[in-house]
Amino acid sequence: MARLPAEAALALVWLTRLPAGRLLPATPPALARAAWAFPLAGLAVGLIGAAVLALAAFAGLPAPVAALLAVGAMILVTGGLHEDGLADFADGSGGATPERRLEIMRDSRIGSYGVLALIVTIGLRVAAVAALFGDPWLAAAALAGMAAASRAGMAAGLGLASRIDADVHGHLFAVH
Fold it and tell me: Which of 51, 52, 159, 175 is the right S-S partner for 73, CB 3.0 to 4.6 Å?
């Protein structure tokens, strides 16, 4: 498989639940090499949310319902990856020591801080999309653009991490 399609497939596998795994070669590329495709994976997520929003607008659903469906679709497509991390972080913030915070974050159960963080952040996303719903096409474009832009930020962070000592990251970010 050509390098660029393999890297794009890896970005989809890493950042979404879309069935792109079968597109990967037997030896997938290093994750850091696929970082250029993170915005494309984000765009795919955003376009799915935008499509749901457009269908909801076409069906005449009220703005809050359409926005909730669009945000929900995007969460489903990513497998709730970011929401899970946010909930773990929020729960861990209540730990008294660094060791206890890490122990709480590794716990698979969600606590009250995690639930509250999810309610607030999902509510804010839904409210933001609903506020743009006066022009559903603008709202759909904003969903797609912001999903791509946020994954571009991840790629930038990954680029920084690849320059940090590989022993710290267990070679996850190493470029070979």
Answer: 52
At residue 79's C-alpha, the angle toward residues 85 and 12, to 5°, is: 105
CB atoms within 10 A of CB 158: 16
pLDDT tens digits, 102-153 = 888 888 899 999 999 999 999 999 999 999 999 988 999 999 999 999 999 9
Q: Please state, in angstroms and rounded to a whole number, the distance separating the CA atoms of residues 128 and 145.
A: 14
Give domain status of residue 175, yes or no: no
Range of the domain at 123: 3-169
Under a CB-based contact definition with an 8 Å cutoff, are residues 103 and 94 in contact?
no
> Residue 88: inside a domain, yes or no?
yes
Answer yes or no: is 174 within a domain: no
H helix or E strand, kind and range, residue 2? none
Residue 52 lies in a domain: yes
Q: How many domains does the chain contain in total?
A: 1
pLDDT band at 174 (very low <50, low <70, confident <90, very high): low
* CB 101 within 8 Å of CB 95: yes
With contact defined as beta carbons under 8 Å apart, do 9 and 24 qualify? yes
* Average pLDDT along the chain: 89
pTM (2 decimals)? 0.85
